[in-house]
Protein 1
Amino acid sequence: MAETAPAPGAPTDQGGDRFISVRNVTKQFGSFTAVDGVSLDIGKGELFALLGSSGCGKTTLLRMLAGFEQPSSGQIFIDGEDMAGIAPYHRPINMMFQSYALFPHMTVARNIGYGLKHERMARSERDDRVAAMLDLVQLKDFARRLPHQLSGGQRQRVALARALAKQPKLLLLDEPLGALDKKLREQTQFEIANIQYETGITFVVVTHDQEEAMTLASRIAVMDRGRIRQLDTPRTIYEFPGSRFVASFIGSVNLFEGELVRSDGDHAEIMVPDLGVTLRALLRGPLTGKGTLTCAFRPEKVRMTRDKPDGRANTIKGVVQDFGYFGKDSLYRIKLPTQALVRVDAPNTLRGGDDDNAATWEDDVYLSIDPAAIMLFEDPA
Amino acid sequence: MKRLSPFLLTMMVLGYLYLYAPIISLIVFSFNKSRLVTVWGGFSTTWYFKLFENTQILDAAWLSLRLALISATVATILGTMAGIALVRFGPFRGRTLLSGLITTPLVMPEVLTGVSTLMLFLLMAKWIGWPARRGFSTLLIAHITFSMTYVTTVITSRLSTIDVSIEEAALDLGSPPWQVLRDITLPVISPAILSGWLLAFTISLDDVVITSFTNGPGYNTLPMLVWAKVRLGVTPDINALGSLIVGVVAIGVTLSSIVITRQERRREKEIQAALAGEQ
Ligand SMILES: Nc1ncnc2c1ncn2[C@@H]1O[C@H](COP(=O)(O)OP(=O)(O)O)[C@@H](O)[C@H]1O
Ligand SMILES: [Mg+2]
């Protein structure tokens, strides 16, 4: 990478792994804080996801990267260059808008080629690039259609091709699959990941769909009310969420409050009144003893048996209250003697569905939870 | 097709009569031989020939046409600029004032607008010596002022329905603001610009009140002339003039709808070509 003189106040350690650097950025609309002190680094060629529920400030953060909004405070560096005061049309960034924002009066080919008229390239070269983009998104036969003559999925691909045509250093995608139906969405997820891999362009994808973030991204930032709650790989975020909020936002989880009975080095014993038992949990860090202690475990990490298992920790007896059959697995709700409900996800490994051993309504079952599967949170939220 | 019930049929005929009977009687009586407007004296086209010999009417028509063409064009340019500023430039200083100033003539009685414009011209003549006499330029300024209001209203209502993100997308793809205006905003609102122009043209063409405050001797527009003549009694040449105007309007409407259908057909063909995968 070419050496650029650091802008005033720029950190001196700008490297390839910190292609984008967001430093303590806050955005206020009047008295409302949409983005609150966000800092993050994104590496070159990364596929990064911003995940959060609607209204948490994802689009606002993206618009600050693209230059449509100015941060109220904080700095944004792209490729070592401070972006303050740089207009959107001078940034090496392209964006795919949530609404696609296709030009309604231009054909697909002209939409895709629009950004290229600012590049110094011959007409033939430009046509070649447009053709290559049409190929990439499989819209060769639609080059001369107008946007309103396309389906939602086709429009989405035109928007992607238009944003990619200029071969930007950074591509921002705002809920790129939001308007597509489930099947098309899954297929397009892989296409986007492929295109990212082939072009090597850094992608920042905004989404409120956790599955989408998990499938696409190499790293995810989970946002909530303008703040980043956790920034990690999808696996770490799912298996080792840093807070109760993240644990319940990503996937489903059973949450129960408890009280620490004692801890012996790497294990803790926690009295959980709702479960009516004392749980043994593997400690991954020291407990401070402050705030509410929450025990959490994911439904698929619970083992469910008809017979009382021998020598397993954390065994609880319960009754099947109801269950739903989802094909590849079944979701059970187990009622405990304490009246509390526990969600259990059991895979359907046997074909036929009338497996003698499968639990059904009113059956007595035993649940056991591995101490390593129990997550402990001390956050007040 | 279902047959209309007698009641519906009657109502339909009455409705059309209500709308078109005046125009039909105007056209019919323009071919009346008699000088008396209400007495049929046989078919003749004399009034049309008389009309074309009447230089007073021809001059007035030519003045009205020039005035309408120029004022509609200038008002459209200014009104479009004002509309874009109001809708797209955010809450800039003086925005409320501008928006108020632009829409006031819409609700103000025309007489007041006329009087105040006249007052302005008189004061200007006193202080800066211009306009020494009222004539084409004062008429033009007055017409631009009030027809711009309508253009701005048309443009703002159209612009506010257009997603800002298409303009942002063009910025994002490297176009500076003036190119975005040229490549995206103006083409997208062009139907509104056209209807704004037509509106301004029509309003200027038939304005009497403001025109009568701001014109000078020798600058009679067509509506003013008609107005003056009719006060002395309706004459058949006015009928002939009215019929001609109706004819021109009808031809204009027909032509424009033919052009629009043709364009649509061509577009459909292009779509079919695209569907067939032809390049
Ligand atoms: N231009 C604006 N003016 C005022 N409030 C805004 C503006 N843009 C966004 N907001 C507010 O900021 C919050 C975050 O919006 P946004 O970034 O669009 O959320 P999302 O995560 O759904 O993309 C929302 O509550 C929204 O109402
Ligand atoms: Mg959004």
Protein 2
Amino acid sequence: MRYLAYIFLIIGIAQGCQSFDNRTLPILGNREAVNGDTVYHTIPDFAFLNQDSQLVTNETFAGKAYVADFFFIACPTICPKTTKQMLRIHDHFKNEGRLLLLAHTVAPKYDTVAALKKYAYNLGVESNKWHFVTGDQAAIYAIADDYFSIAMEDPEAPGGYDHSGRLLLVDKNRHIRSFCDGTDPKDVDRFIVDIETLLNEK
Amino acid sequence: MKNKLTFACFLALFGWCACKETPYQHGKIMYTNFCENCHMADGSGLKGIIPPLAKADFLQKNKEAVPCIIRAGMKGEITVGGQTYHTEMVGIPKLTEFEITNIINYIHTSWGNNLPPVKHPDVRTWLKRCEKNTKPF
């Protein structure tokens, strides 16, 4: 009887480990049922300009996953912290061709292509890995919503803009699979594990 | 009598705890509120954009300019630890001489920095000097 219990215990542990190995991330956001199929929240079409004046669209990320966030250069509050964590992710996945980064400015009035170029250059990163994009302010603020983020102009806010510091993981089907608080290095540790899990999905 | 004794013990314990804390507790709180967003909790800054305060040679060499930087900001190009930086830091004019002194002393004794403390009257003199030539850099 005792042996039986041990055997079950071992099977249970083995089973548990196995399901951990094949762990998949959930698809986040609202879902709808259309004709019996589930339709998941999807990042809509977009078109912005990056630090090298290249057009960046959904096609830029075809077949790849990416991490997105919102920031602005002259930001006196959380942005340096979130950018620092983005840089950590950048360095961690430097040689991983299936992961890119996408930072949207919420202050396109000031953060021109030239300004973004200088910023990326100072950080020492390249546009084929990490896109810093600018564009139509209304389009950026609208898409922030789709990334579960806040972006708005607010004269009362420090630096004149209000935005959240979330980092979001988008898969090759344009679905959001994970996110974290970009100001909290511990939360980003967990997020990096999630990115690895996503890249290991079949 | 017994109550008084308990109270005294508590007081002694409290004093002991308070002394064990970082010596520049007030400076630490002010740093968290006014500097940490940019220079980071560990003083490491942000590569290429915001210079570090941890083990920064700049702090050592420009001791007298630091109070002015805190109050009036800076925007020229500087080199810290072999890396050049050229981003504007906006000054924080509302900080008092006392607060600036405490922040500097917190920085001077944190993250591997081992710089001597600055004194309030010196900070006052250095700030006076910076009022005259507006910005040090």
